[in-house]
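To fix ideas, we quote verbatim a fold written out as tokens:
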Amino acid sequence: MRKHEFINSSRVFTSGVGSSHAVKAGDHLFLTGMTGRNVKGDWASRGHVEGQAKQVFENMAFVLEEAGASWRDVVKILVYLSHHRMWDTVFSILTSHLGDACPPLSAVVVEFPDPNLLLEVDAIAFLGPKRTLNPRSLMDVTSLNSSHAVVAEGLVHMRGQTALDRNGEISGPGDIQIQTRTVWGNLQTICQEAGGSLEDLVKLNIFMATPNFLNEVVSHRRDTYPHIRPTSSSGFVGFPNSQVLIQVDGWACLGQRERIYTDNVWNPEKAGSAQAILLENGLMPIIGISARNLDSSYHGVGDIRAQCVHTMEIVRHILEKAGATYDNVVKLISNVSHPAFAPVAREVRSSYLKENRPALCTIVFRHPSTLVLVKTEAWAYLGS
């Protein structure tokens, strides 16, 4: 039985790709990636980021209102941009909507399946009591209409952490070792400020500027924090600040949780990840899934359809291990390595979701292995 609620606004374009504008899971609200289409489905401003940004945040406001929420309820925003020079314009328009709200805020530069798409905004809100975290030892981001973290129902939603020091300067320009250590130090500070530790991390999205940094980032995490086993996903993107080499978006759980493993699929534990983690509030983040076989080799090399099916099958096995099905999925993100792969990814995931209409997002960026054509990550809800 489905335990979440679909939210749709009549003032926002409905794409017809099997998604809802938002999904309410308990008191958490997961929004579909918002784009710059008006209610008729036309681009608000073809080729101009200002017009699209205005439409994006107007659409977000409509969806929040439909759910009985406001900008003050937003606990996480991730802005996907098609070019780093767009950030100042997008940020200015966003802050005009936020007012005195200061949600954790991140931005990365990616490609999109549609060349008309200049930005997409992913967000999570929470319709209940929450508290913000801004450790004094970290850069003051409140002047940027942001917070380092928001704690909502025991789940800590964090701002994307980079190597910015307390004065807003990059630690270790051009040095991935220093920047990686700084980022992990920031994550530790936030977890401790929340009343927890790094071992409470349950989900990490690790963004890097180039594949050349992967070994350093992975080895630092494995050697320095060997007992940490969150769900995780990684990819290669650009950043609004060209000096940033790594950004980590994190979530931590201060309550009870259960790590989910199934023997039917590749076990990422040696790589420092869990397949999924069932949280006390009923939410369950699932690792970014690539098309790996049990022996860790890649399935369907060069075949996007085969890889899409394989990743969705792996997600199905993980859900079943937790006592769930695709009907429990409230957010699903498809990360493809080429824009041409997006239609296949959408078609395959729709065949698995059937009547469920979760919040969706489709983004294009490079993966740690060139053999990976698609990666699927998800949030499920098993609460009452």
In short: The mean pLDDT is 95.
